[in-house]
Write a structure and sequence with these properties.
Number of helices: 13
Helix content: 40-55%
CATH superfamily of the largest domain: Type I PLP-dependent aspartate aminotransferase-like (Major domain)
Order of helices and strands: HHEHEHEHEEEHEHEEHHHHEHEEH
Radius of gyration: 21 Å
Strand order of the largest sheet: 1-9-8-7-4-2-3
Bound molecules: pyridoxal-5'-phosphate
Shape: globular
Distance between the termini: 33 Å
Oligomer: single chain
Strand content: 15-25%
Largest sheet: 7 strands, mixed
Structural class: alpha/beta
CATH topology of the largest domain: Aspartate Aminotransferase, domain 2
Number of domains: 2
Number of strands: 12
């Protein structure tokens, strides 16, 4: 385990993203490469290959990577608006805010969809998805979130993938907050499209998302896009024919991402990154348990990406005060997003180490004392 080195005066981010990045990742951006520069185009090619290998696949297996400008949501919306034909229909599996967001994309884009909704603290039931697909044969594709960052819950994407494939439907996984840190088998999942972004577990800077696509599924989408800029097929064609983005690429973010990928590899790939994030999360759990905080999720559903904590019932606890005082101590946590329960979230991803989590915990304790809270138990 490498020691935590403070690389900037900025507060470490215990959030779902953007996240703390390493100094070399930030330094990689101190250049101005043109969008047609050969060095830049070679880096884009390498990144596309490296991302496939992070997913455990390669071009020879029939997979392609498309990079898309914009934040993660842009990549998700690209798939939602491209991956089904004009008369197609999505089945959106929802157990949090990011699932809800996909349903909203369908509404805004006038795309037919159906939802299957679960409480935010429970995982989707594969049997019910099987039944939903049997009941409505007009459904063409299924969308699901890998790690619902709303709470930190992990969804059973492999099990559900087998059902989606049994019905011969297109399968899309929003793996934004999981890809690069949670080991899974892309091929076994049967994923046709998987989206993540530069600034989550790969620890790059914000600016683009990427989509791992089954080539067969991607080729079928030609002419299906509802927009010009988010057209996955055309974006892929551009990258394939002259290696370029169709519109201004996030050149600096791509240089940073290349460095982030190198660091990911140095850390031992997905498995290595998982080790550090698990240590971060274990450190957090022990400390928060000791202080008397209560987790929102049952332990069997909880990921090591982000943890939701219920607001303590103590009469002196007030989240805004807690949040701002922690900020003054130099730590950024995140408000909750759960709809039926008052929670806040602490992320354990990004360029942070167990020692950073320890420092956060010390400040949480101090902050509580400043609020005249000496025990939560
Ligand atoms: C972060 C996140 C998104 C959205 O990403 P933005 O970069 O904020 O647009 C989508 N889905 C999940 C699961 C996420 O964690």
């Amino acid at each position: 385990m490498r020691k935590s080195v403070s690389t900037s005066k900025d507060r470490p981010l215990f959030t779902p993203g953007p996240l703390t990045t390493s100094l070399p990742v930030k330094l990689a951006m101190l250049r101005d490469l043109g969008s047609r520069d050969n060095e830049f185009l070679a880096i884009v090619r390498e990144i596309r290959t490296q991302l496939l290998s992070m997913g455990g696949v390669c071009q020879e297996d029939g997979y392609e990577t498309v990079l898309m400008q914009g934040s993660g949501t842009f990549g998700v919306e690209a798939v939602i608006t491209c991956a089904i034909p004009p008369d197609g229909k999505w089945l959106v599996v929802i157990n949090g805010a990011y699932g809800d967001r996909i349903a909203k994309m369908c509404t805004i884009n006038h795309i037919n969809f159906k939802t299957i909704k679960y409480p935010e603290n429970s995982v989707p039931n594969p049997i019910e998805i099987d039944n939903a697909l049997s009941d409505d044969p007009t459904i063409t594709a299924v969308a699901i979130i890998h790690c619902e960052t709303t709470t930190g819950i992990i969804n059973p994407i492999e099990e559900i993938g087998r059902i989606v494939k049994k019905h011969g439907k297109t399968y899309f996984i929003d793996s934004m907050s999981a890809f690069g840190a949670i080991e899974f088998d892309l091929q076994a999942c049967g994923a046709d499209f998987l989206v993540s972004s530069a600034n989550k577990c790969i620890e790059g800077v914000p600016g683009f998302s990427f989509c791992l696509c089954k080539k067969k599924a991607l080729l079928k989408t030609k002419g299906w896009s509802r927009t010009l800029s988010l057209d996955l097929y055309e974006q892929w064609l551009g990258l394939e024919t002259n290696g370029q983005f169709r519109f201004t690429p996030p050149t600096h973010g791509i240089l940073a991402f290349k460095q982030a990928l190198n660091e990911h590899l140095e850390e031992g790939g997905v498995a290595g990154r998982a080790v550090r994030y698990k240590l971060n999360r274990d450190t957090l759990k022990v400390g928060m348990d000791t202080l008397g905080f209560e987790e929102y999720l049952e332990p069997e559903h909880q990921s090591y990406i982000i943890t939701s904590y219920r607001y303590p019932k103590h009469p002196n606890f007030e989240f805004e005060t807690f949040y701002h005082k922690l900020n003054e101590h130099g730590f950024v946590i995140y408000p909750g997003k759960v709809s039926n329960s008052e929670c806040f979230r602490i992320g354990t991803v990004g360029r942070i180490f167990p020692s950073d989590v320890q420092s956060l915990l010390q400040s949480v304790k101090l902050t509580l004392e400043e609020m005249d809270i000496y025990s939560l138990k």
